[in-house]
Specification:
Helices cover 63% and strands 0% of the residues. By secondary structure, the chain is mainly α. It folds into two domains: 3-70; 112-269, Butyryl-CoA Dehydrogenase, subunit A, domain 3, CATH 1.20.140. α5 (120-149) packs antiparallel against α6 (163-195) and α7 (202-229) runs antiparallel to α9 (259-269). The relative contact order is 0.10.
């Protein structure tokens, strides 16, 4: 039901009720209007306006909600997410016994086995890289579907028939494939070292971090290629490429795979004194 129809029906209902009330009441209006009759008329009009206000307030509530929503939307930033209230979780004044806690940096694993020899921060970085490469793979698939159907304005060819798009897809595939291969290789070497017993050395740990960082950065480059290849279609919230773009750059900003990780590995490779506690 349109807003105009709702307003008309509310107004019609109020006026109809007022006419019916006047018809069945013993009230009369003389000429000239007597004081008592004037008081009754003013009271009736006031009541009518109050009822009208309350009903209109309910009718226009969706419009007020839309107005409040638009205050949080920048029309120059398509796809910007609106914050949802009430989903945050906060724990305050909670005391956890020492026996129920663990330190990623200082405590030893309670179990043996190759997996437990992997550094916690390295595992975290690998997790971020895995997500990033999954996002990149999805972006390539999204662009492939888009390119098969989209014909830019004034063109008879689809995106898939354009050499620039073909090159971008190939570059993205190469970036993702090489990044994945490096991560798998680094994990395999670390697993072999862990299976032989003992902790992973600085060389293995730094290689894990380097592979994870490189994998995430390469995945971001691949997504950027697909996002740009999508053209104007990719910037809207309805496009999956828009979501991939935001997600990959969120993952890229994670401290475990940030550019500072490259500096850390570079210092180690150059033989400089380095704090390796975050490896």
């Amino acid at each position: 039901m349109s807003l105009l129809t709702r307003v008309f029906l509310v107004d019609a209902a109020v006026l109809t009720a007022a006419v019916l009330a006047l018809a069945v009441s013993p009230a009369t209006v003389s000429h000239p209007v007597a004081l008592r009759e004037g008081v009754v008329l003013v009271a009736g009009l006031t009541m009518l306006l109050i009822v009208n206000l309350l009903l209109f307030r309910h009718t226009f509530a969706p419009l007020a909600q839309l107005t409040e929503l638009m205050r949080n939307v920048d029309l120059l930033q398509p796809g910007r997410r609106i914050p949802v209230q009430g989903d945050d979780i906060e724990v305050a004044e909670l005391r956890v016994p020492v026996g129920h806690s663990a330190s990623l940096a200082g405590d030893r694993p309670r179990h043996d086995g190759p997996l437990y020899a992997f550094p916690p921060f390295g595992l975290l970085a690998l997790g971020v890289a895995g997500v990033a490469m999954g996002i990149a793979n999805g972006a390539i698939q999204d662009l492939t579907e888009l390119a098969a159907a989209k014909k830019p304005g004034g063109s008879k060819r689809t995106l898939a028939e354009r050499s620039g798009i073909q090159t971008a897809v190939a570059q993205a595939e190469a970036l993702l494939g090489s990044a994945r291969a490096y991560v798998v290789e680094a994990i395999g070497e670390a697993e072999e070292a862990a299976a032989s017993g003992g902790d992973l050395g600085v060389a293995e740990r730094s290689r894990l971090r380097l592979a994870a960082t490189h994998g995430t950065q390469s995945a971001a480059d691949a997504v950027d290629l697909m996002f740009e290849a999508g053209g104007g279609t990719a910037i809207y919230a309805r496009s999956p490429l828009e979501r991939r773009f935001r997600d990959i750059h969120t993952a890229k900003a994670h401290m475990m795979v940030a550019p500072t990780s490259l500096e850390l590995v570079g210092r180690i490779r150059l033989g400089l004194e380095t704090d390796t506690s975050q490896l």
